[in-house]
Design goal:
2 copies of one chain form a homodimer.
Chain A: H1 3-30, H2 37-55, H3 58-66, H4 74-92, H5 95-118, H6 121-143, H7 150-156, H8 164-187, H9 200-213, E1 223-225, E2 231-232, E3 239-242, H10 249-268, H11 284-298, H12 302-316, H13 324-331, H14 348-364, H15 372-384, H16 410-429, H17 433-438, H18 443-452, H19 462-470, H20 477-491
Parallel strand pairs in A: 1-3
Antiparallel strand pairs in A: 2-3
Helix pairs in contact in A: 1-2, 1-3, 5-6, 6-7, 8-20, 9-10, 10-11, 11-16, 12-13, 14-15, 14-16, 16-20
Catalytic activity (chains A, B): Release of a C-terminal amino acid with broad specificity, except for -Pro
Organism (chains A, B): Sulfitobacter delicatus
Protein name (chains A, B): Metal-dependent carboxypeptidase
Chain lengths: 493, 493
């Protein structure tokens, strides 16, 4: 056994344990008896403690020292890069600080949920203040001596290789264009709204068919219901959840397709990378690019919604929509709303950009938590043209900050930007794609994504895998062009 | 923090990790996508490796040395006793031997399954030979210098405090009496057999009602289907499985009640013991006493089956059984058969006693694996009066030996013996129990078991908890008296 073999054997066990820990989360959201919650908290903490101890295991440094990277192939060097980054990260954060963050964010989630239920930001503010202070301390430890900012260091946890300045430039170009397009759409005549009651069992049956049509492999996956849809797991056990609402079947279908995008990414990774650092999606942004392109550029396209319209008629009978064109416009209707997760394709990124600016200001100290609610409400009104009516529709709507996810929000929009780039390249590579999609056949599209993005797993850096797939550096232009064209056509502007 | 506090904090984390590992087993048998199997093997191995490292952690010995037991209360001393035994056990078995056993038994299970499917004992014999040799080596390490036999040491894993000689005396008294009763029953006129087709969804609905009537708490549990029914987990997350067969609803109902007995034991333990060594059922024998008394002495009693008869009529309509008395006799019918797990209350223990004698002979070297099949067949014919027709109905029917469970079988009969003792004492304490059971109300019975057995968890030694509950040392006489009275009445002998 060489040092590399020893390191990889150790890492393989760590990856397996991380899968176990992740599945506890799946279990909790789907099948766990509700009375098990207190015990589950201890089980998760115990797994975290085991994983943390492995991440800072001193043998890793010894192995890394003993390995000569030039003796390795590309895969070996990529593994080393991931392991080294994780180890450096764990080593930079003092155990005492990591434990404090874990403790505070664990309690903060409950405080946030109560404050949201009570629509009382003041009840959450002191806790959030504590979280921000701790994350700032962590960010400083991560950035120290590296010539990068605290927020850059936070971003690395979710999107390695992307700096705050890159995002500022990209998002700065997006925001005015999105606002402009949004304003034009709001002045135009809106499509009708879907009405009626849609049997939930029939929704689940069709959602399962949709998942299979998008290439989700149910021999290594499964679909359950959960309050918040998610995808969970890597390798040979990648599970998704969805939800049903009798009045809103699109919520079920597009949640499913979104999560299938995440799951298909994990299932599409080269099986040689199973239980290695390359065997997981490479970043949150690239992950979101897959879920978004499945959901929007493919799933909400005119061609694919034509097929879905027929499927819905088969499942629910005549549901009051005249034809495919009307159905397409209904699916893509732009509606006023406060909630990011319910936002349409056009407005979604404005929600994200707001959070990106506010959380950078919080981290830099330019914005105090005590001023956050007012800052949120001002910015929201500036971007959307109407006032936030209550904190649960505003600053308290997302769980992220309470659990210490700072630097995570921008990956949503980065994923949309990447999806725009990939879609442009995919359409060039597959000029007849719409004919397939109109038959409900996504295999050419998902196959292209598998071969150009998914199979690589962690082999390349996030931005690199997108650039390779597209043949050029990613930027916001393709997403903007796609949105402008799509909504100009739907809204006749 | 005292040394005791440190030890218990460490132990609490270990217990939480053990719960996580156990739940992986539940997941595998119920919801895991079938394609996940190879990855799951690595996940389980990784968890086992973590748990093993904790069991042999050198800090445990330091803590144990630093603790003065006389400063502790009964609970503290009981915790210490469990931790010390587990640590001594882990320390006695060389890591290399433990790893070999894990590797060999993991592969042996597959070899056994294939041999059973092919009805070919010779295909399994070399593997079993290897397992026996390794377990003998392990038993020798466990027994060394303690003045106990190898088989005594194996027993300790499942039934601490019970020696082979105790079981030999008890089982020696049981066997002739059971054979005699069985012979008399076989000469008498048998009750009819249940016939018909029973809707499986209706079986599941009634099985869930049965589980609740036996006090299973579904806020900390759940019922799923699995090929082999089992109970899994301790504390606040105790799940059971059952199965359905359209032709045999009793299989579903009594599997459920049996597993509810196991699960109720775990749920009934004093909540102060959560995630400590006292927070689990104390031994396999005591566990089986609960599952068996729920299933047989309560569930198959004349009074309770009267209620069940009415429930089945409600669920399935008239199913061709005239009255409660006939139903009772059908439920308790003694039938010929080869399979232990399908055996009735009367014959079950004869199956176990056969295995007990054979596995002791294998461990002592008095019996060679090459002679095992013939020895099994001879003994079976002697005890049951007809020949084994094929290995899958004989020596290959149980998984236990392939996975290294030697010393486990006798705990099934010990559990029945304990159930007999508990039932005798419970009937004295609850003279009007039958009136409750006839209404489907088991709460007095299960309440008595909870207060006298279940709540103690691991506080007392296994035999001690039974003796305390019964007010006398346990023995086989009550079980025999119960069986003789019951079957004499049913078979009119």
């Amino acid at each position: 056994m060489t040092a590399y073999d020893d390191l990889m054997a150790f890492q393989r066990e760590t990856e397996a344990l991380a899968q176990v820990a992740g599945r506890l989360g799946w279990d909790q959201e789907t099948v766990m008896p509700r009375g098990a919650a207190p015990q589950r908290g201890e089980e998760m903490a115990a797994m975290e403690s085991v994983l943390h101890a492995r991440r800072v295991d001193p043998r890793i440094a010894d192995w890394l020292t003993a390995i000569e990277p030039s003796n390795l192939d590309d895969v070996g060097r990529a593994n080393l890069r991931h392991i080294k980054r994780d180890h450096d990260r764990a080593a930079r954060v003092p155990a005492e600080l990591a434990a404090r963050i874990a403790r505070v964010t664990s309690a903060a989630q409950g405080t946030w949920a109560e404050a949201r239920a009570a629509d009382d930001f003041a009840a959450f503010a002191p806790t959030l203040d504590e979280v921000i202070a701790l994350k700032r301390e962590e960010g400083a430890a991560l950035a120290e001596g590296r010539g990068i900012g605290i927020y850059d260091a936070m971003l690395e946890d979710y999107e390695p290789g992307t700096a705050a300045a890159d995002l500022e430039a990209m998002f700065g170009a997006l925001r005015p264009k999105l606002s402009e397009l949004r304003a034009a759409v709001r002045e135009a005549e809106a499509p009708p709204v879907l009405e009626g009651v849609f049997d939930e069992a029939a929704q689940m049956a069709l959602t399962s068919k949709l998942a299979r049509h998008f290439g989700y492999d149910l021999t290594t996956g499964r679909i359950d219901k959960a309050v918040h849809p998610f995808s969970s797991g890597s390798g040979l056990d990648v599970r998704i959840t969805t939800r049903t609402n009798a009045l809103d079947p699109f919520n079920c279908f597009y949640s499913t397709v979104h999560e299938v995008g995440h799951a298909a990414y994990e299932q599409g990774i080269d099986s040689a990378y199973l239980l290695t650092p390359l065997g997981r999606g490479v970043s949150m942004g690239v992950h979101e690019s897959q879920s978004r392109i499945y959901e929007n550029q493919i799933g909400r396209s005119r061609a694919f919604t034509g097929w879905l319209f027929g499927e819905m008629k088969d499942a629910f009978g005549d549901f009051g929509v005249a034809d495919e064109d009307t159905f397409y416009r209904i699916v893509n209707r732009v509606s006023d709303g406060f909630i990011r997760t319910e936002a349409d394709e056009l407005q979604y990124n404005l929600h994200v950009l707001l959070r990106f600016d506010l959380e950078r200001a919080l981290m830099s100290g330019d914005l105090q938590v005590s001023d956050l609610e007012a800052a949120w409400n001002d910015r929201f009104e500036a971007d959307f043209g109407y006032k936030v009516d209550r904190p649960s529709n505003g600053v308290l709507q997302d769980v992220h900050w309470s659990v210490g996810l700072l630097g995570y929000f921008p990956t949503y929009t980065l994923g949309n930007v990447y999806a725009g780039c990939l879609h442009e390249a995919m359409r060039v590579a597959l000029p007849d794609l719409d004919a397939d999609l109109a038959r409900g056949d996504t295999s050419a599209a998902t196959g292209w994504l598998r071969n150009n993005v998914q199979k690589h797993g962690g082999l390349y850096a996030p931005r690199e895998v997108i650039a390779k797939a597209c043949g050029q550096e990613p930027g916001e232009a393709p997403l903007l062009a796609y949105l402008e064209k799509k909504f100009a056509q739907i809204y006749d502007i």
